[in-house]
Amino acid sequence: MTTSKTISPSATRLLPLTWRVGPSERATLAPERLVPAQVPGAVQLDWGRAHCFPEYWRSDHFKAYQGLEDLFWSYCSVLDLPTLVGDERMFFVCGGVDYRFRVSIAGTVVHEQEGMFTPFEIDLTGRAESGDVLEILLYPAPKAFGEAVGRAQARLSNKPPVSYGWDFHPRLIPLGIWQETGIQVRARVHLRSVDVRYQLAEDFAHAELTISAETSDAPGTALEYRLRDPEGQLALHFQTENAVLERPRLWWPAGEGHPDLYTLEVLLDGVIVHSQRVGFRRVRLVMRAAAWQEPAGFPKSRSEPAITLEVNGRVIFARGSNWVCPEIFPGLITTETYRPLLELARAAHFNLLRTWGGAIINKEAFYEICDELGLLVWTEFHLACNLYDGEGEYLRVLDQESRSIIRRVRQHASLAIWCGGNELFNAWSGMTDQSFALRLLNKNCYELDRDTPFIATAPLGGMAHGDYRFRDERGRELFEIFGQARNTAYSEFGCPGPSAVDCLESFMPEGELFPPRPGTAWETHHGLRAWEMDPRTWLCQDTIEHYFGPTQTLEQLVERGQLLQAEGYKFIFEEARRQKPVCAMALNWCFNEPWPSAANNNIVSWPHRPKPAYYAVQAACRPVLVSARVEKFAWCSGEVFEAEIWILNESVDTVHSGSVEVELDVAGQLMQLARFDFPDLAPKVNHRGATVRGVLPDGGVRTFDLNLRVAQRAELDSRYTYVSRPRAAAVPEHTAQLDS
Amino acid sequence: MTTSKTISPSATRLLPLTWRVGPSERATLAPERLVPAQVPGAVQLDWGRAHCFPEYWRSDHFKAYQGLEDLFWSYCSVLDLPTLVGDERMFFVCGGVDYRFRVSIAGTVVHEQEGMFTPFEIDLTGRAESGDVLEILLYPAPKAFGEAVGRAQARLSNKPPVSYGWDFHPRLIPLGIWQETGIQVRARVHLRSVDVRYQLAEDFAHAELTISAETSDAPGTALEYRLRDPEGQLALHFQTENAVLERPRLWWPAGEGHPDLYTLEVLLDGVIVHSQRVGFRRVRLVMRAAAWQEPAGFPKSRSEPAITLEVNGRVIFARGSNWVCPEIFPGLITTETYRPLLELARAAHFNLLRTWGGAIINKEAFYEICDELGLLVWTEFHLACNLYDGEGEYLRVLDQESRSIIRRVRQHASLAIWCGGNELFNAWSGMTDQSFALRLLNKNCYELDRDTPFIATAPLGGMAHGDYRFRDERGRELFEIFGQARNTAYSEFGCPGPSAVDCLESFMPEGELFPPRPGTAWETHHGLRAWEMDPRTWLCQDTIEHYFGPTQTLEQLVERGQLLQAEGYKFIFEEARRQKPVCAMALNWCFNEPWPSAANNNIVSWPHRPKPAYYAVQAACRPVLVSARVEKFAWCSGEVFEAEIWILNESVDTVHSGSVEVELDVAGQLMQLARFDFPDLAPKVNHRGATVRGVLPDGGVRTFDLNLRVAQRAELDSRYTYVSRPRAAAVPEHTAQLDS
User: Fold this and answer.
1) β-strands B497-498, B599-600: how paired?
2) What per-residue confidence (pLDDT) applies to A327?
3) Which secondary structure element, helix H or strand E, spans residue A726, and what is its range?
4) Cβ(B485)–Cβ(A299) below 8 Å
5) Which of A653, B73, B242, B321 has the smallest number of Cβ neighbours within 10 A?
């Protein structure tokens, strides 16, 4: 009576149920108390609401919610069922329960499941009546026996590890019904699932559609299909499972064209019972130009893995970010959570988001909006930074969950890459190409969606993650680190910055605000000791004071920290673009955050407020801009400042020739460094222009700006800020003061 | 009426058929002439025999056989069937036909197939009678349309590419029935297939056996199983499909222990109808010690792929060779082909053979002997140096063939690694991790034999192939190249040498023997222009003369060339062992050859005659030896000769302390360089001993020897030969003469 098939998203309306929830120590004990439950939601939120817990995202209040995940929880609903007409049938439909659970009707177990990503439904017809209790009993959150508190406790389960504690996420492990859930009345003959697959001709001249639709009836139920073009005009009308669309309008990612979406309507007995968007595109991972010439000489190893994205036959440079869980509790995520964030991503000229593997696979609304906005999605399975070497039961659930995930997400034009998980081939994970979990995921992706590229993890050979600091423990600045690096894709790099003052004030007790100290919300909200590799993260006050001297106020600290973050990200994104075609991808860590941080590598604060770094990244990701390559951030009075000026170009059209003016602005003193012309640039071809120089005037510690202007094309202009310090570098660290 | 299941190898006797074979231009035309056919065999051999073609392996006579693969070939047998008793049944059984074919009985097509690795059988009962003609019609060998003559013609088929021409293999493309074929009479209820799988406990305390046996009867036919231990004593007797063997005696590879083999007997109605060997072992690819600490710093890429072999929980250093087709025509290969070669491999202290992907998957006899001798087998699928990007039909046949291969080979204890094919991630192939063919092979190996490691190709990152010359085009000697390399596995490296004089005389017209010239058998048999990257290969006369001056006779040329090969291989094998644990594997290219070469990288000449290099490799692969690390081969009079002396140790026991004496022998003049002691050495731990030096005496161009002796343990002694030339290096290349 249960199914794990895709549930038709546009089936008849879902009638909500009224739920109460309560904990118990044992599965065999009924809860002593039930409290009202919000569904979708989380048991912790329901329990906290009923008991007036303080908001989990303020101060260190999340600690009040810890430990609740170690109990059994019963969701109970006294059924109040509608009356069926004729041969109608009634179903209990659930999009997902986090994490292991069993379902009973009037005391009889009707379904058991481990895994939050596989929806299920139960036919209630003749099996339940009003007044019966529908119970979903949740088991305690899985914690691998013998592992220390932390993400390793998630390594034998299919629960996203991020909630076990991460450097941007508190330890708070949700449990609960996290997807839409309710009662559905259906005609006897109804649609059970629809699956749309297509094969694009190599030259895109046509698409061969294959619709696999399943009804509750015997095969042969009269289904009809209508495919409408992006304007809503009927493009195809067919009764068979196969049809050919001539000259499909292609779905293009942002910046490359329009993300055209067709609509498929499924009709049963002449009535539209389902409709979904279909975007026609082909995504491949290809070798970059000249990659095959490496390695040269003997002994000769393999050439690097392909990581250059080719969409609809066109190589694109991937600019984007790592998407993390936008909420600690996935049950809270709605379309309204996703939309403003994704619109910010689109406005930043991004074309790719990597949905990082530590978290959930995003809800349908995420992919629907990405389809619409032209945002490609690198979808990672829910594995991150752990040794997932479980046998038997672990692999069985991974198989079930991954198949559910693939069947759902493969329907979306925005899907660009499948990835097994985050940093699994590194020391802190310890997995290898031989790991069963990754071979299973490769197999399932091949079987169910082989046309979408699959990579086992990131980074692969040639690719790289990190650094995540403006200045490392050896004093190397990111200008040096990334200027000298030579990687095929930067699928993660970070530069931290504090949150805005009013954001800090919103969650931090006033007495903790300044100066930042351990043991306060600066620590619990990731400003200090967030990253075990560097206890000064993510605030990095030492770096701020290295450049600007001691900090006097919170406002000063935030402003200076945000300046470093903005300038750092600007450099890395632009430098990665300059390294094209060796480099094909720049994705910063990270885009958003699940709660308000004190300091973090993100560029958009929770829930959807841009930090200054967002605008810097937005500028650096413009399809066409003038860009400066500099060696360092800190300069001395009297030193010869030097910058190599480039035109970065990801435009699909020719960029017409123009003239660049380069100017330094040192404390209001303008210095013309150079003016040079650049020629017409073919689409997607960068131009290395002039190297300009100028002697920096004397002065104290102060910032100065480099302005790049293109005559009559202000949209290409760029500005960079650096710091200048007195000559002789005689200023001891942490003592010089910034000229205000 | 056909099956692609594993055919029980010990089923009732195969009655041979009498075959005739003949060509035609079209599938619809009967051959004009049929000639007697040997089965197994090849149509080219039958046709050549009937037409008195000269032997294909002499001179350039193989050219007479070329082109026959472009015809259709009909194998015809007028059936002379035995009389069935009672309800007996009669089958036509065929182990394999190369390559695409259809089978007819009395003009009716009963089977069609593409792919040589999938056996088939046809139930003839009531379907054929004596006098009927059984026909197997072969299609022309596949040649990808539009590709130039060469291996690329094989890239859209599942035919081994080596026969399309390689640097050690002439272009000669076999077609024919290449496996055992005949009539089998069986009881009505008979065994159809047996599959033995087991799961070893992590601590090897027990093995859980699972026997999947299929009979022609409905499920439930009374089968019994008996497992006999290596001495033939009954260890288990069971009727169910599952059984547990306590404390299994493990199968160990050569040098590590005994390759213990159990015997499984299958009884039907109390009669043994099948028996097969079962070896219990666990093979894993693991990370070498300290591998996880790399790469250091940021940006950080992945750690290298695991390539260190762990057998039964013990890390071993893999010493061995690349096994190539021992015959051009696989139909000629029998147990008698394999056994002497494999015994040579075992005697060379090898523990691993890589069956290189350009050729066939070896016959059962190969694996049976490897099981018995304790030789691990890295089994490559039949893909090599091509862009296998075929869709649809190509993948369908690859799926069929790979599943047949896996089901057969996974039964063998000697199977150590599955590999997708040779050098597929390099420029000359152009495949990537995204290639469907490799994802399919990974999937099939995971589904059917997931406990055996799978690698997509060799080399992977960290591993390396080549160089294949004693001295490269820049003048770098292999002593320098491999002394400076740092790879995790050398899965191919070569050093060429000419064949013995009498071997050359056996196939080369007398007038072509000396001096070697293009346009002779020196060229067709790979002595010159074999390798497009270096036209002087594989004879490399220029290198020989660089060291020894002009060559006067064939004997001189062969002796000098073979000396370089022997010394070269000795150095690389020993150097790879010194690089342990970073390096975990040394497999030279190649062990054997499919026909007599003029010069080649092999160490055993066709059919099974060791070259001097074989004995050098045998010495270098001894479990324990004294070994010299030197910088170069060519020294000058008066120069300070230097060698770093190691004790190399792969023993499973402690190596007891001892004393090493180091001596130079320059034209009979003995120079004691040093004597030093080494301590007790733990199992598998090398020891870096003394660096010794001595001034070389004056003299002309001459070889000299370095002798390493261990007091009272001559089995550890080593000898190396180098060349000394007059001081000042004033001798122009190709002019100095070797002192005789």
Assistant:
1) antiparallel
2) 98
3) none
4) yes
5) B242
CA angle B118–B450–B424, rounded 5-degree value: 70
Whole-number pLDDT of residue B220: 62
| Angstrom distance (rounded) from CA B522 to CA B501 | 13
pLDDT at A737 over 70: no
A284 touches chain B (CB under 8 A): yes
Q: Show residues of chain B in contact with A300, CB under 8 Å.
A: 426, 459, 464-466
CB pair distance less than 8 Å for B434 and A285: yes
Q: pLDDT, tens digit, for every residue of B89-123?
A: 999 999 999 999 999 999 999 999 999 999 999 99
The helix/strand count (H/E) of chain B reads as 11, 42
SS3 B313: coil
Residues B314-327 have pLDDT tens digits of: 999 999 999 999 99
Average pLDDT over residues A560-566: 98
Query: B150-194, pLDDT tens digit by residue?
Result: 999 999 999 999 999 999 999 999 999 999 999 999 999 999 999
Would you state the structure tokens that stand for residue A271, as one six-digit string? 């009535």
pLDDT in tens, A112-137: 999 999 999 999 999 999 999 999 99
> A700 CB near a chain B CB, below 8 Å?
no
Question: Please, what's the largest Cα pairwise distance for chain B?
Answer: 91
Q: Nearest CB to B427: which of A286, A293, A433? A: A293
Residues of B within 8 A of A455 (CB-CB) are 433
A454 neighbourhood in chain B, CB within 8 Å: 434, 439
Residue with tokens 């910063």: A588
Of residues A107, A103, A101, A108, the one with CA closest to residue A92: A103
Cα B256 off chain centre by? 21
Residues of A in contact with B460 (CB under 8 A): 301-302, 433
Task: Judge whether residue B6 has pLDDT over 80.
Answer: no
Residues 414-473 of chain B with CB under 8 A from chain A are: 425-427, 430, 432-434, 436, 439-440, 442-443, 446-447, 450, 453-455, 457, 459-468, 472
CA distance B433 to B454: 13
Using CB atoms within 10 Å of the CB of residue A36, give its burial: 0 to 12 exposed, 13 to 18 middle, 19+ buried.
exposed
Question: Looking at the predicted structure, is the pLDDT value of residue A723 above 60?
Answer: yes
Domains of chain B from N-terminus onward: 2-186 (2.60.120.260), 191-283 (2.60.40.10), 286-312 (no CATH), 313-620 (3.20.20.80), 624-729 (2.60.40.10)
- Nearest-CA residue of chain B relative to A533? B297
Paired strand residues for B276: B264
For residue range B307-364, list pLDDT tens digits in order. Answer: 999 999 999 999 999 999 999 999 999 999 999 999 999 999 999 999 999 999 999 9
Average pLDDT, whole number, for chain B? 95
* Contacts with A, B 608-637, CB within 8 Å: none
Nearest by CB: B301 against A442, A461, A493: A461
Beta pairing partners, A669: A666
Cα separations in angstroms, B380 against A685, B160, B423:
42, 11, 11
Task: Report the residue of A310, A387, A434 to disrupt the B interface, i.e. the one with the largest count of B CBs within 10 Å.
Answer: A434
Judged by CB atoms within 8 Å, which residues 296-315 of B form the interface with A? 298-303, 305-306
**ipTM, interface predicted TM-score of the complex:** 0.95
- The residue count of chain A comes to 740
Provide the residue count of chain B: 740
Residue B221 CA to residue B237 CA, distance in Å, equals 17
**E strand or H helix that includes residue A404:** helix A393-409
pTM of the predicted structure, to 2 decimals:
0.96
Beta strand B206-215 pairing with B609-610 = unpaired
State how far the Cα of B463 lies from the Cα of B285, in Å rounded to an integer. 13
Average pLDDT over residues A635-651: 97
